[in-house]
Amino acid sequence: MDTFLKSSRSAAKVSVVHVVLGSESCDLDSAVSSLAMAYFLSRTSSGRLGAPLVVPVLNIPRSQFYLRADVLLLFREAGIAMETLVFRDDVDLARLYANRRLALTLVDHNLRQQPGGAVVEVMDHHQPERTASLSCPVNVEIVASCATLVTERILSRPLEILDKQLALLLYGAMVVDSVNLSRLVGKVTVKDSQIVHMLQTQFPDLPSSGALHSALHKAKFSLSGLEMNHILLRNMKTVARGDLRAAVSVVYMSLESFLLTKNLQQQLSDFCQSQQLDAVVAMTIFSSDQSYQPVRQLVIYSPDPVLRQEISHALQNTQSPALCLSPASSPYKDILAYHQGNALASRSKLLPVLAHFLSHWCRGNGTDEQVDQSADGLPHVYASSAHRHRPGPEDNGNGPPPPPMNSLVDGCPLNGDFNQEALMEKFRRMDGVEEQQHGRNAY
């Protein structure tokens, strides 16, 4: 993978940038899948005349990366130099798209998009939101981890692509997402187990799956030093339909602990305002014992009481799957709380339900539910701005609204271009790191 990063110096010589983009939660599976898939595509296209530069982009602002403690831990163990990573505020994807210089491969998510867009391939392990086409093959298979599918793809080629560094990254993601291959939790599949076993056989000095899972699980669930807005941002995905935008955040604590947060209602209100959200659903999750069997509970907040109640009704009434919600006591009048009887219904199962509800709500209110696409056809997560600005106390009515939290150009000048020099500088710095580490083991 180090050689792959070096080769990105050719950025100035190519006309198209092929970005491999994970989900906006940027969890361990998404981050690893982005790097591994980009490395694979770079290796299999190297030497081809006119081959695009392949760049893995982590789908969060650089300033939020420190919140992903488990990702940081695994990357450090694998010897990934942090300064070589590219984040969504390092690259103006909207400008690349407008200039017809962008090709996108999506991993660990499969957003809907209008025809003729930049997406050229999808690899995911969630329920499909888009169908395959001649210009965009879609590989969606319900397994525990997208890293399983990426590893399978890598192993399908005769090239010597897989080394110890890459194997550790993929192995760690699969071990975490499958909960150490636990059959009790119900996430692991035969394919996950087979791929993990293949890596263990090919690289016998990989750490034991139990020890690695324990270390990464501890880092993932640690909330030390984090404020509520950080906790909500740490693992958040958004759904937008029309003029409505809602988030579902996975929160690693019990419902009781979450509701004991000081001034929780005001903090949720401030969070919705700062992130331009109409509603936020917090899925609390913790393990009741050493089996890592999850206990899931839900909190629903919206400043709009009607929207709050309707979201609650939609989640209570859904049968695909049934969440089996039962009301829990809440000390706040504008916060609804529920115990979730179906512990297997993860956020990936809840998001389509919420998206369907928002679409229905928009149609019922006479709003075009597809306004979440920007005017040029780029989905809202790639566009510079696609949602109305909700004024905060700091607004004085002057100047353009800031790009939404979900924008891939958040923090980038909207009139800027892909900064090739800045990207090349990352790899020049990385070279210095590599020279210092030459001859040392990857972990």
Automatic annotation (TrEMBL):
Pfam family, one: DHHA2
Region (Disordered): 384-414
Origin: domain of life: Eukaryota
MF (Gene Ontology): exopolyphosphatase activity; metal ion binding
Gene Ontology cellular component list: cytoplasm
The UniProt record lists the keyword Manganese: yes
InterPro entries to which the protein is assigned, alphabetical: DDH_dom, DHH_sf, DHHA2, DHHA2_dom_sf
Keyword Manganese assigned: yes
CC cofactor: Mn(2+)
Keywords: Hydrolase, Manganese, Metal-binding
Location of the DHHA2 domain: 213-358
Gene3D superfamilies the UniProt entry points to: DHHA2 domain (3.10.310.20), inorganic pyrophosphatase (n-terminal core) (3.90.1640.10)
Family: Belongs to the PPase class C family. Prune subfamily.
Protein name listed in UniProt: Prune exopolyphosphatase 1
Organism: Amphiprion percula (Orange clownfish)
